[in-house]
Write a structure and sequence with these properties.
Layout lengths: L9 E4 L15 H14 L3 E5 L5 H10 L8 E7 L11 H8 L4 E7 L2 H8 L3 H17 L3 E7 L1 H7 L1 H14 L3 E6 L6 H14 L4 E5 L6 H11 L3 E4 L13 H11 L13 H11 L17 E2 L2 H9 L17 E2 L7 H10 L10 H14 L8 H11 L8 E11 L7 E11 L2 E9 L2 H13 L10 E9 L10 E8 L4 E8 L2 H27 L1
Parallel strand pairs: 1-2, 1-8, 2-3, 3-4, 4-5, 5-6, 6-7, 7-8, 9-10
Antiparallel strand pairs: 11-12, 12-13, 14-15, 15-16
Helix pairs in contact: 1-2, 1-11, 5-7, 6-7, 8-9, 9-10, 15-17, 16-17
Length: 534
């Protein structure tokens, strides 16, 4: 069976679960909610939120995501089959899977006889019962049930008859989709293609693929599975995942759509792929992979000589697709040529009037390039970006001005003594000056409290603003402790969440820039809402 152009391929994102198992990646609950909302907006079909039985953070995510109005994606909870010699209705983990009230539940079971006999140390028939009855239990509860056949390809190559029996057990239980997993990431594309085809010869089912990238072919394996007839693909944004990572959806999705003619997400949303990639990188506090296919900064970069000359006359000479299709842009390293269209789109999204022939447009492009070269990053700092546009277009007046601030950090007592921070600040609002002080556990918190105390008399709504997240990234690591620092702050007023950014060699100054933008964005939002009401 081979997929063809009219095939709809469903995309299942597991960034929030499998991706969070990557080294040096840890998402907060807010991070996970924000990423889920962006995935939904992008057109992802399934979003795996986590394993409810594994940690409190995943349970908190499921509680928070139920409050959101997703437009397209289905949220899935992940877990395992019931334990050996246990009925599903008495299994604690299966009860937790139902308790988070997701429309979809994904459970995994053992396909490899080696795991059944050596890891679980149970009889092969007991493993089949666990699969069959667990799927049946969840299906009877009204859930869409996806069955992840763990280590399926290794199991099939070792004992094909038993591996197929595990799938048959899931089918008998009522599984809506069987997902074949290359859990160790060591299978090659030709093997994937052949085995998927063999499975589809045996069973008339909806088949999915879940690949890891330990052999560097996670994306190729996923495409090979679709070519053989799989209609459901699992992966993560930017390929995050344990060990070498999972199959990268930022490569899989455009390959399926642009190279294989598949229906995946709405075509008009594909141009948001690069923004999505960068957004998730920022939430994960990771440096973007500049050489990533399709979405990397260097994916459509050209340097000197024949390449530049040729691509300027005929882009397809050195570009396999038009970069705009995935939201990227062509870069000539001796002279930046892209940028204007992205700014125009962003301005339109935010209701800012910026004509294509505006004389300010090239000035904005130039300033953005300069700021980015200094370390600023606006992908997850939409508040700072909007303020920048308005300032450059002379559509913004500052709500307050700083006369000065001072931050003192003091450690009291011995080695176990408490560290306290005190911030004093002098602000001007119109003709009036306000001087306040605040004490807190950290210098940024103290500065934040002092600033809002100074502004409260003039702008009562600043008390609604709370700092939700605070990320620091060292930009030029060679400079060690003198390195330039980027600070990203996420703020909320209980209704909206926005990001702001600051950059400086001094971490307090970088934090101050982001804090000021955070408060100014809130005040600007309030002012615009007031105008609309009147």
């Amino acid at each position: 069976m081979e997929a063809h152009e009219s095939t709809k391929v469903f995309v299942y994102d597991t960034t929030l679960r499998d991706g969070s198992q990557a080294e040096n990646i840890s998402f907060s609950v807010l991070d996970k909610v924000r990423i889920a909302l962006r995935l939904d907006e992008f057109g992802i079909d399934y979003i795996e939120g986590g394993w409810p039985g594994s940690n409190p953070k995943d349970c908190a995510f499921f509680e928070e995501i139920r409050k959101q109005n997703l437009r397209h994606a289905k949220i899935s909870a992940f877990g395992s089959t019931c334990r050996p010699n246990t009925e599903p209705g008495e299994d604690h983990n299966l009860k937790l899977l139902l308790g988070v009230e997701t429309p979809v539940v994904t459970i995994f079971g053992k396909s490899w006889l080696l795991h059944v006999e050596e890891a679980l140390r149970i009889l092969p028939d007991e493993n089949l019962r666990m699969i069959r009855e667990s799927v049946r239990f969840l299906h009877a509860a009204g859930r869409e049930v996806l069955y992840d056949a763990e280590h399926f390809f290794d199991g099939f190559k070792d004992e094909p008859d038993y591996a197929l029996k595990t799938l048959e057990a899931a089918i008998e239980g009522g599984a809506d989709c069987l997902v074949l997993c290359d859990t160790n990431g060591g299978t090659l594309p030709d093997e994937i293609n052949e085995i998927v085809a063999d499975v589809l010869d045996q069973f008339d089912v909806s088949l999915g693929i879940h690949c890891h990238d330990d052999g560097g072919v996670g994306v190729a394996n996923s495409l090979a599975a679709v070519r053989a007839g799989a209609v459901h693909v699992q992966g993560t944004i930017n390929g995050y995942g344990e060990r070498c990572g999972n199959a990268n959806l930022c490569s899989i999705i455009p390959n399926l759509m642009l190279k294989m003619g598949m229906e995946v997400i709405p075509a008009e949303r594909l141009s948001g792929l690069r923004d999505l990639s960068l957004f998730v990188d920022e939430q994960a506090n990771q440096r973007p992979n500049t050489r990533a296919p399709y979405v990397g900064e260097s994916a459509f970069a050209h340097k000197g000589g024949i390449h530049v000359s040729a691509v300027q006359r005929l882009p397809e000479t050195y570009e396999h697709i038009a970069p705009e299709l995935v939201g990227n842009g062509r870069r000539v390293l001796v002279s930046e040529l892209s940028g204007r269209s992205n700014i125009l789109v962003k301005a339109e999204e935010r209701g800012i009037k910026l004509p294509k022939d505006s004389p300010q447009l090239p000035l904005i492009v130039e300033k953005l390039k300069r700021l980015e070269s200094e370390g600023y990053e606006f992908e997850a700092a939409e508040g700072s970006f909007e303020l920048l546009l308005k300032k450059e277009l002379k559509n913004h007046r500052p709500f307050f001005e700083l006369d000065g601030f001072r931050v003192i950090v003091e450690k009291r007592g011995g080695d176990d003594g408490r560290v306290l921070s005190e911030a004093t600040i002098r602000l001007r609002v119109g003709d009036e000056t306000e001087y306040t002080a605040a004490e807190a556990g950290g210098p940024v918190e103290a500065l934040d409290i002092a600033m809002r105390k100074a502004l409260l008399r003039f702008y009562p709504s600043v008390q609604e603003v709370r700092l939700c997240d605070y990320k620091v990234r060292i930009i030029d690591t060679i400079a060690a402790t003198a390195a330039k620092t980027r600070v990203l702050i996420e703020s909320s007023d209980g209704t909206d969440v926005w990001g702001t950014v600051g950059v400086s060699e001094n971490i307090i100054e970088a934090s101050w820039q982001a804090l000021v933008d955070s408060v100014e964005f809130k005040l600007l939002k309030d002012e615009e809402e007031s105008v609309h009401r009147t």
